Each structure stands twice: as C-alpha cells, then as structure tokens.
Amino acid sequence: MPVSIGKKTVTSQSPLATLAGIKILEMGGNAFDAAIAVSAVLGVVLPSTSGIGGDGFMLAKSGGDFIAYNGSGWSPKAAREVTEKGVNSITIPGLVDMWSYIYDNYCTLSLEQILKPAISLAVNGFPVSRTLNSAIINARDVSEELKRKFGKKRFGDVVRLPSLGLMLKRIAKDPRDFYEGEIAQNLVEELNRLGGSFELSDFSEYTGEIVKPITSQYKDWEVYELPPNSQGITTLEMLKMIEMTGINKLPYNDLNRINNHVKIAISAYSDRDSYVADLRFSEFPAFLLSEDYLRKNVEREGIYNEKGKDTTFFAVGDGENNIGFIQSLFEPFGSGIMVNDIIFQNRGAGFTSGKNKLEPRKRPLHTLSIMYAENGKEELVIGCAAGHLRPQVHSQVLEYYVDYSMEIDEAVNAPRFVYYNGKVVAEKRLNIPATQVEYFSGAVGVVQAMKRKDNVYISVADSRSEGIALSL
Predict the structure, then answer these.
(1) What are the helix and strand counts (H, E) for the chain?
(2) What's the confidence (pLDDT) of residue 154?
(3) β-bridge mates for residue 453, sequence order
(4) Per-chain mean pLDDT for the chain
(5) Exposure string (b/e) for 210-229, b if CB count within 10 Å is 16 or more?
(6) Is 392 a residue whose pLDDT tops 90?
(7) How wide is the angle at C-alpha 154 spanned by C-alphas 171 and 3, nearest 5°?
(8) Structural domain that includes position 412
(9) Furthest C-alpha separation in the chain
C-alpha cells in the first residue's frame, strides 16, 4: 500500500522492512524499537543502498522534545588521499553506533528481538527486488567478493548473507563490539589487506554525535533539518528564497516558476559547496539563513514574482514518538568493497576542498538530511533517496503540501523536476521543455513521508519505488 492511515505506522522503501517494523509495534515495542528493526532489514534486503558498513542520521520528536543524531563516520587518522570508489573512499561506518545510542536511551525490547527479522533474512535468504536488481546490473568498480555474491543474481533470485547474519547476532549482544572488539579488529585487518590505512583506534574512538536541529520559518510552518555536516541547511535556504520571491503564486507547472526554482537551487547549492562542513573543523554558517544575505542572492540571480546516489529513508510513528531515519552507502554498493558480507560506504568521496577538505578524523559534507515540519496542528516528516538532489525534493514536497493544498500522499506523488549537472530533469507529466524522464521516475527522488494530525497518522510510500506503508 503506498498510503496508510492509523494510530501507529511505518513507511519504508521495502515491504519486508515495513512489515518488520509493524510486527515490532504489534509486539508492544515502541517506534525506536521499530526503527532499528526497519533499519537493519533495509541493510540486508537493499544492501546496495545502506547497511552496517554505512552511515545514518535520525531526526525524531518524543514527548515534545526533538532528538537529532549524527551517525556519519569520520576519515581514518592516517588518511592522506580519497578516491571515489575503493578502500580509500571508506570512512568509519556510523550506523551501528546510532543503533547503540537509540537502544541505550529509548528502546523497550531486547536488541535480540529487534534484530531477529534482519538476522533471519540474512541467514535464510531474501528475494532480489527490482531496486536491488537495477543496482546489480549497473554496478561498477566493485570487488570480486561482491561480484561473486551478487553479480549473477537477478530479480526474484534468492540471496543469502550468512556472515552478515552472524555479525548481526554479535551486534545484538553488544553493538560496541563492532567498534572495539574482535569484529573491529577483523575489519581493520581486512580493509588494510586491501590497501587501507585504518587503525583500530579509528573505530574504537569513534562515536556519533547528538546534535541540535536547525530551524527556520516557512509561512505558518516551523521547518527543522539536520545541521552541517548534513546538507539540511540547503533545504531551509531554498525555502526562504522561495517564500521571499513569491514564485509559488504561479501554477506548479508554470515555466517561469520552474526556471526561478532552478535559479534558487543553483544559489543554495553554491553556498552548500562553499560553507557546509564538519562543525568540529569550521563554524556554523548561520548567515546563510539571514534575510539580507538571501535577498542579495535573489537579486544577483535575477529572480522575480546526479548520477544516482544510493540511500534509503523511512519513518515510524507510535502515537508518542515520531521518527525520521535515513541511512546510506552513498553510491550504489558504496566503495565496492565487501568484507564478511559487509559492504562499506564511499563517503570519503564527499570531501572536496576549502572548508570541506580531507583532514584526519573529519566527517565529509554529507548529503543525508531529514525534514520535520509543524504548524501547531499538524506534523510532517519527509525524507527521500536522492543524494545531492535531496534539498530540491524536500522543498518541492513541502511546497506542494503548503502552497498548492495537496494532501501529503498527493504531494509525494505529484510530478517533480530537479536541476542536475547543468540541466533540468523533469517527469513527463510536467510537460515542460526539459530533459524528460518517465511519468513516475526515481530520477527525481524516492520519498517516504508521514503526517500526524489529531493523533492519527497518514504515511506514504512513493509510487516511484516498491515501498509500502502499513499502519495499526
């Protein structure tokens, strides 16, 4: 079901992951229990998108308070260069650390219960989905181990990942073993055998970070995003310029609106690439959200009245806790390096120059972000698989909901466009002069969204994917 209504809900990019989350809620677990279960299953059945070799972020609201966690990894202490793929593109994975933080602070079930569905699927096998099938066919620069495991698999074939299942069983007993114990020692040895420059301390000294969401006003809505090194501030900057210029007084498919929307995106992305970096190495660029600065940007741009990245986002609500959760390997199959059925990310490719240059133990600019919006009556959680395009997708979904009076499922499924690599890419339904893609295309992002109003949830899985939403 692409849309579901109920008192408790889960929406994700995989039916198996959504079902695992719903079963945890049926067992009496809370949304945090369900979130780890969904996260773990996604890492098994969509291994090209995410997993314990990758990163994650969470933006949640519980008891009236926001909880934000940055589970992005840092570069090794001895790192001197980064590559787009391969062992030198790997940063320390942060997802398991985020599970550990969530479990220690918010969960009610045992970690063995929570990880049981993922362990079962890894050991007993799961069918290749269309999403995974596409990633396998288009995979490039991957290791021989990864080729042996996935290379000949196609849609509907069964994949088994027994070593990953064993790893998850050990993590269920102690998640920090992934960073400090025998697991970590083995991973360091194997990665260095492949040419890496990792030390055990790169893992053992790593922890994620509790962060404070950044926020700005969009009309009657307070909108929250994750702070740098996440690109969330780019979404807020776009929304402020969109409101400032009034371009949404035009029909959503008006060519003038779309052209000006693209100019706004170009301006915001330019700022992102210049100023967004690990805040342990640079200052927070608060001026990016000041009206004087943005007005100058608008005037300069003359605005008046990506190869695909692999990520997966999901949302869970249980009546007391609303959770947005995103995890990723960056590119499909990440670095292409697979060790003991663990596929490692290539987030090191996110380092560039200037404030975002490579330095020891530094986090790169991160494309992962989550939107949370509220207006006193309703709450929205919006996220997507879209890589660098995420700020454009987040803003368009919110604009459709707020400015064009669409319901949340309509806003998710409405036609989208994005500016990428110097051109506008648009779904055919928009009927505009642009590089056209299919009527419902993942090229403009795959969104999962959740709305809460009067203690009832509406959750949505984008029709551009195989995802489903289920509720109780």
Answers:
(1) 15, 21
(2) 96
(3) 378, 456
(4) 93
(5) ebebbebebeebebbbbbbb
(6) yes
(7) 70
(8) 1-472
(9) 61
Q: According to the model, what pLDDT value does residue 297 have?
A: 82
- Kindly report, residue by residue over 303-356, the tens digit of the pLDDT: 654 444 568 999 999 999 999 999 999 989 999 999 999 999 999 999 999 999
Which are the catalytic amino acids? 311
Question: What is residue 449's three-state secondary structure?
Answer: strand
Measured between alpha carbons, how far is 167 from 145 in angstroms, rounded to an integer? 17
pTM for this model (two decimals): 0.93
Number of compact structural domains in the chain: 1
The SS3 call for residue 10 is strand
Distance CA 203, CA 193 (A): 17
User: pLDDT tens digit string along 434-468?
Assistant: 999 999 999 999 999 999 999 999 999 999 999 99
User: What CATH code is carried by the domain that includes residue 24?
Assistant: 3.60.20.40
Query: SS3 sequence, 322-352?
Result: EEEEEEEEECCCCCCCEECCEECCCHHHHCC
Distance set, CA 443 to CA 143, 393, 453 (Å): 26, 11, 31
Q: How does residue 1 score in pLDDT terms, banded at 50, 70 and 90? A: low
- Name the packing angle between helices 31-45 and 111-124 (round to 10°): 20
Neighbouring-strand partners of residue 459? 4, 450
Quick one: pLDDT at residue 308? 47
Residue with structure tokens 């395009």?
389
